[in-house]
Amino acid sequence: MLKKSKEGPSSKLLPPEIIERRIFLVRGYKVMLDSHLAELYQVTTGNLNLAVRRNKNRFPEDFMFQLTKTEAEPLLLQFAIANTSRGGRRTLPYVFTEQGVAMLSTVLNSKRAIAVNIAIMRVFVRLREMLASHIMLLRRLDDLEREQKEQGLQIGAVFEVMRKLATPEEIESPKDSIGFQ
């Protein structure tokens, strides 16, 4: 009997590493740029944003938002987006959260869009799992550090007692000498 793989056709379509490199943290959300999503879906950025505008009620602020100039500048410089005088981007980019990407599959109803969304959702889940394991490791490190500090204090106390025992206090000379003088 053949076992079915968890990985479907979407994993062959898009390696997870490509998707991971296109997820950014903006305003506390893990997001993807509209231009990156358009590239993955193999549509133009304009067509993707048009489909979203036609279904605006499906994309509340926590699903999709437009970047400010200060937020967009570092991201756009990273990808060497063409300047506006040469036909590049004229508007600030939109970004989509995990829920927004999931909602895109209802707006862009093609086999490619469904496969891409499945691949993206798997990457988001994997990132969440990695983050959870990192948080657990950080907590454990904090516990170990706290224990180490407590043990350090106890060891310090032991050394203090040993120093007191090793250094003789005032050696009392006998007042009355015994024996011949």
Shape: rod-shaped
CATH class (first level) name of one domain: Alpha Beta
Q: Which fold name fills CATH's third level, the topology of one domain?
A: Mlu1-box Binding Protein, DNA-binding Domain
Q: Counting H and I runs of at least 4 residues, what is the number of helices?
A: 7
Give the helix proportion (percent range).
55-70%
Mean pLDDT: 79
Gyration radius over CA: 32 Å
| Proportion of residues in extended strands | 5-15%
CATH architecture descriptor of one domain: Roll
Structural class: alpha+beta
Regions with pLDDT < 50 over 5+ consecutive residues?
A: 1-5, 7-11
* Biggest sheet, spatial arrangement of strands: 1-2-4-3
Sheet with most strands: 4 strands, antiparallel
Summarize the structure.
The protein contains seven helices and four strands. It is of the alpha+beta class.
Structure keywords:
Mlu1-box Binding Protein, DNA-binding Domain; alpha+beta; rod-shaped; 181 residues; 4 strands; disordered N terminus; 7 helices
How would you explain this protein's 3D organization?
The protein has 181 residues and is α+β, with helices and mostly antiparallel strands. The protein has a domain at 10-134: Mlu1-box Binding Protein, DNA-binding Domain. It is 57% helix and 8% strand. The protein has a four-stranded antiparallel sheet with strand order 1-2-4-3. β1 and β2 form a beta hairpin. The radius of gyration is 32 Å and the shape is rod-shaped.
